[in-house]
Design goal:
Number of helices: 11
Largest sheet: 6 strands, antiparallel
Strand content: 5-15%
Shape: elongated
Number of domains: 1
Order of helices and strands: HHHHEHEHHHHEEEEHH
CATH architecture: Up-down Bundle
CATH superfamily: Outer membrane efflux proteins (OEP)
Radius of gyration: 39 Å
């Protein structure tokens, strides 16, 4: 018995000695070879630039209220928050990996033995009954020595999953903010298109009235009247289309904000909607710490790295100790008759997988490949992030140039429309020139609104591409 205790002590000591061993490799970030600056970035900025808070980025009070509502009531955000709670519980549980388990087992059974068996004859002889009772109560402790650092790797995996979900939540909030802002801009742009259509209907109506007077005086043919009618219908067709698109956009924005379709309060025009255009871009390397989707992709590698270590540890031996103490009796009234009914057990086990059809090795190889896949995806996410910033900068730069050109064009077309009407009244221009000038002005005004919206959306895209929501805005 003394020698057995020595074996147990040696086994426990070996477990503690090997507990410092670990088969998992520590995660190190791969070299990204990032460029020094973004393409199309003509502003020299310091490397310690921080992402701009959306509350400083957005100045419109109506828009601020919509974003605040969306971040609280959006269903996707609610689901993401619940997922974070799940992962937080998983992490808390993983921290208990080194603790032993304790089980209490109470049991009672009665066995009717064969009278022709040795146990049956002895039971009938000594107990005086054709059956045998067995009452037991056992408290069993089980502890596995963490030889290969499995508990640490499980905790690292759970923590990486938790922080990865936290970054995914930030990315989701940023995406929702951008969607709300751009939907809001779309609504105001549609309002402006509706105003332009109504204005052109009035202008076309005046032109049509003038041409009808000349037709009644036999100065023009019926073709002129029909052309003027067609030009008026062109403008009128824009009104129901704009009304339809406004209703659809309002419905989509209401759902995005976590409510049922409803009217949306908004500013009068795009010029009254202000966004901070001085978004500091910094350098590409900052995206590794500012872009939540990039950080989430890296946390996925960290989790996969831990999984790889766990898959490798599964191929190595495990050592466990399972002491237990309890009571056992064949008579109910002597079940807890101490110390006579006490039963004690102590056991130590070493388990080494030998032949499992290569399943453990295959699982490890799969985990290695999975980690490599995530590493490639992480690099791709960094490349995409740099590209998105460069794209947004290019859109801002060139949409500004287009705005300058179309504003100059608007002035020319406005003068052309006015001159055409005056010349037509004086008989120095025909009706086609008047209609053409009005149509050109209509299309130009619609394009002007489209370009303004494109520029505003590009600024918002830049805000998102640079990281959007940061940790202080959670």
């Amino acid at each position: 018995m003394k020698k057995f205790h020595q074996y147990i002590i040696i086994l426990a000591g070996t477990s503690l000695l090997l507990a410092s061993c670990s088969v998992g490799k520590k995660y190190t970030r791969q070299d990204m070879e990032l460029p020094e600056n973004f393409r199309n970035n003509e502003i020299v900025l310091t490397s310690d630039t921080l992402a701009l808070s959306w509350r400083k980025f957005v100045k419109d009070s109506n828009l601020t209220a919509l974003i605040t509502k969306a971040l609280v009531k959006n269903t996707d955000v609610s689901v993401a928050l619940l997922s974070m709670q799940q992962l937080e519980l998983a992490y808390k549980q993983s921290k208990k990996g080194l603790l032993p388990t304790l089980d209490l087992n109470l049991g009672a059974n009665r066995t009717w033995l064969s009278t022709n068996s040795l146990n049956g004859s002895l039971s009938d002889q000594f107990i005086g009954t054709p059956y045998m009772d067995d009452y037991s109560a056992t408290l069993r402790l089980a502890w596995e020595a963490d030889i290969w650092g499995k508990a640490k790797m499980q905790k690292e995996e759970a923590l990486a999953n938790f922080f990865g979900q936290k970054e995914n939540l930030s990315a989701l909030k940023t995406r929702i903010i951008v969607q709300v802002i751009q939907s809001y801009y779309n609504l105001i742009a549609l309002d402006e298109q509706l105003k332009i259509a109504q204005k052109n209907v009035q202008l076309s109506d005046s032109t049509l009235a003038m041409i009808r007077l000349q037709y009644n005086s036999s100065l023009v043919s019926s073709l002129a009247v029909e052309q003027a009618e067609a030009q008026k219908k062109t403008a009128e067709l824009l009104i129901p289309l704009a009304d339809q698109n406004i209703a659809v956009e309002e419905n989509a924005l209401s759902i995005l904000c976590g409510g049922f379709p409803d009217k949306i309060q908004r500013s009068e025009d795009l010029d009254a909607t202000f966004v901070n255009e001085t978004v500091a871009t910094g350098v590409p390397a900052e995206l590794l710490s500012r872009r939540p989707d990039v950080k989430a992709a890296e946390y996925a590698i960290v989790a996969a790295n831990s999984k790889m270590g766990l898959a490798k540890a599964a191929m190595y031996p495990s050592i466990s100790l399972t002491p237990s103490i309890g009571t056992n009796s064949f008579q109910f009234n002597r079940w807890f008759d101490l110390p006579g009914s006490i039963v004690k057990t102590i056991a130590g086990n070493i388990t080494q997988p030998i032949f499992q059809k290569g399943a453990l090795k295959t699982n490890y190889d799969i985990s290695v490949i999975e980690r490599e896949k995530l590493a490639v995806q992480f690099k791709q996410s960094v490349m995409l992030a740099v590209s998105e910033v460069s794209d947004a900068l290019a859109k801002i730069k060139h949409s500004e140039r287009r705005l300058q050109l179309i504003e100059a064009k608007s002035k020319s077309l406005a003068k052309a429309t006015s001159d055409a009407a005056l010349l037509y009244k004086s008989g120095m221009a025909n009706y086609l020139e008047v209609i053409t000038a009005q149509n050109n002005a209509l299309q130009n005004d619609l394009e002007h609104i489209s370009i303004k919206r494109e520029k505003l959306n590009a600024v918002v895209d830049l805000y998102r591409a640079l990281g959007g929501v940061n940790d202080t805005e959670q």
